[in-house]
Amino acid sequence: MASHRKPRTTGQLVAGLRTSPAVGFTAAALTSVALMSQTATAAPAEPKPSLEEVQKKVDDLYRQAGVATQKYNAAQERTDEQRKHVDGLLDDVAKRTEKLNEARRELGSFAAAQYRTGGVSDTATLLLAEDPQEYFDQSQLMSRLTNRQKEAVDDYQTQQIETTKKREEATESLASLTESQADLKASKQDVQQKLSEARELLSELTAEEKARLAAIEKAKEEEARRKAEELARRQAEEERQRQEAQAEQEQAEQEQAEQEQAEQEAATGSGTGTGSDSGSTGSSSYATMAAKVIDFAEAQIGKPYVWGATGPESYDCSGLTQAAWKTAGVSLPRTTWDQVKVGTTVSVDNAEPGDLVFFYDDISHVGIYIGNGEMIHAPKPGANVRVESIYYMPIHSVVRPA
Question: pTM of the predicted model, to two decimals?
Answer without folding.
Answer: 0.62
